UniProtKB/TrEMBL annotation:
Record protein name field: Intracellular proteinase inhibitor BsuPI domain-containing protein
Top-level taxon of origin: Bacteria
PROSITE patterns assigned: PROKAR_LIPOPROTEIN
Organism: Uliginosibacterium paludis
Length: 155
């Protein structure tokens, strides 16, 4: 009996070390908040170009942000973006998603490269970075901060 218990404890410990907790439903929106900082970016890109943006996220809320969700990425936590005109009108609402690679504990930070696609029209845009729980809610909608960067898009 003791050996089975020990094996169970070892397996539980090792799975907890992966840093990827799975969430099967909507997080409590009251417990989520992040601080976002853009670490570098191209200030000018080509229309419809794919590029990377280095971002730091810090969990300033009261809950763990899990790295995994249900099958098909439902309820997974990560970053996405909106493209806005300089008049704040929405040009692109849902951008590509970049998911957390590991859990983000309270007070912890994680740097990651976001996958971004530029708008199809030339112009000067505001790139707004936000966090979300896929298929649930955008963090800005529950009071969390966003990061904004001005980007020129050329043909």
């Amino acid at each position: 009996m003791k050996s089975y218990f020990c094996l169970f404890m070892i397996a539980s410990f090792l799975s907890g070390c992966s840093g990827q907790t799975k969430v099967d439903g909507r997080l409590d929106a009251k417990g989520v908040a992040v601080a976002l900082m853009v670490l570098d970016t191209a200030r000018a890109v080509k229309t419809e170009a794919d590029f990377k943006l280095k971002v730091r996220v810090t969990n300033v809320g009261g809950a763990l942000l899990p790295a995994l969700g249900k099958e098909g990425d439902y309820f997974r936590v990560g970053a996405s973006y909106h493209w806005l005109g300089t008049d704040n009108r929405v040009v692109v609402w849902d951008g590509k998603m970049t998911f957390l690679s590991k859990d983000l504990g309270v007070g912890d930070s994680q740097d990651f490269l976001m996958n971004i696609r530029a708008p199809s029209e030339e112009g000067v845009y505001i790139l707004e970075i936000d966090f979300l729980q896929n298929s649930a809610f955008w963090f800005a909608g529950v009071g969390s901060q966003v990061a904004r960067v001005l980007v020129k898009v050329n043909k």
